[in-house]
Specification:
Helix content is 14%, strand content 28%. It is built from 2 helices and 5 strands, in the order βαβββαβ. The chain has a 5-stranded mixed beta sheet with strand order 4-1-3-2-5. A hairpin with a 5-residue loop joins strand 2 and strand 3. The radius of gyration is 11 Å and the shape is globular.
Length: 80
C-alpha cells in the first residue's frame, strides 16, 4: 500500500545518482511548497536533478515510506 497522503503522481526531484541506482537516498526534504526531494550524499548541480513521480521513487526505495508523514518544511538525513 502506498504510504503517502500525496498523489502517487506527485512530481518529485531526485538526483540522477539515485535514479540510476548508483547511490542510495540519504537526504530527503519535504519543501515548504510541498515538493519532495530525494538525494544522495554526493554534491549536486542542476544537471543532476530529475523530475519523477513520488510513486517511482517509492518503487526504487520503499524505505522512504518511513517519512511519509513528514511535514512541509522539514528534512531527514539518513546518515545522521
Amino acid at each position: 500500500m502506498f504510504p503517502f497522503d500525496d498523489d502517487p503522481r506527485t512530481a518529485c526531484i531526485v538526483c540522477n545518482h539515485v535514479l540510476n541506482k548508483e547511490e542510495s537516498i540519504t537526504y530527503i526534504t519535504h519543501d515548504e511548497d510541498g515538493m519532495w526531494q530525494f538525494l544522495c550524499d554526493k554534491e549536486h548541480s542542476m544537471d543532476d536533478a530529475r523530475i519523477v513521480s513520488l510513486e517511482e521513487v517509492y518503487a526504487l526505495d520503499p524505505s522512504i515510506g518511513e517519512v511519509a508523514d513528514m511535514p512541509c518544511g522539514c528534512f531527514f538525513n539518513k546518515k545522521k
